[in-house]
Amino acid sequence: MNQGFNTFKFAVLLLLMANSVTMLGQTTDNQLGITPGKLTFTVKTVTNNSTYSPKNVFAIWIKDAQGNFVVSRKVMANNRKQHLVKWNASSAGNSVSAITGSTLTSHQTHTVMWDGKNASGVEVADGIYQIWVEYTSTNSNTNGNLGPFLTVEFDKGPAIQHITPVNATYYQNIVADWVPLGVGINDLAKAGASLKIFPNPFNSETTVELNCEKPSQAYISVLDASGKKVATLLNDSFSAGNRTYKWDGTTDSGKKLENGLYFVQIQINGFTEVQKIIKNQ
Q: Could you list the residue range(s) of the whole structural domain that residue 197 is in?
């Protein structure tokens, strides 16, 4: 198949998505200025060698452009939440729907997702939003020594956002990806096929499972965030049934790819579907 044409086709698809969300079945929401989608955010914390390091309490939450609290995504501080000074000031302790847990014993990479809804489960309007991150390894609420914090802005709307801020002193490997619902042309059902990808996000390896109801000709490739092909998983004809393909996050030449957003594109019997995939480590 003409892979150059496939890449061009994918790029055009993204452009259409950005400029005409109604083509992807989001007419009603978009007319109201609401684009359903998903944010994936990854960050690695680095110790600041304070009182209780490397132990730390940690939080990630979302605020709007006016500084209003939207929703918490991760709060690791069951018994020491009061020391997350900025998170408490913003959220008033609201951790509804967030990942929660006890004080962390070490620094690590964190990945969270956001479905574009506030703490009440209501889809929020398009616009600029802020991802806030805070950790502390000291009694910040009593001694006044705040822990390191970070903010990353992104635009919630009909266009894909792929943001990779430079490393900060205490926060590294920062990636934020906003992907509107309906990326790709979801036509596999018309082709009598279905596609599953798991785990997603993934670390060392993920599985692409294809089910076909009839003999088929299929081409499955992995594209980076710009739509450039980086790997080919399948280019063949086969009989009906289930089949699985593994991808270890490398290119066709064996080069290990960086963490971030990728797309699995399948073309089968004249139909196309694109699904996003997140590589963490």
A: 183-279
Which residues are bridge partners to 17 per DSSP?
Answer: none
With a threshold of 0.85, does the pTM exceed it? no
In angstroms, the Cα distances linking 158 to 16, 45, 126, 177 are 10, 30, 8, 13
CA dihedral 244, 248, 251, 252 (to 10 degrees): -50
3-state secondary structure of 140: helix
CA distances from 35 to 22, 71, 184, 268 (A): 10, 17, 15, 28
Domain annotation covers residue 170: yes
CB of 218 closer than 8 Å to CB of 266: yes
The tokens of 12 are what?
């055009």
In terms of pLDDT, which residue wins out, 48 or 17? 48
Domain boundary among 134, 163, 180: 180
d(CA 228, CA 9): 11
87 closest CA partner among 24, 143, 149, 152: 149
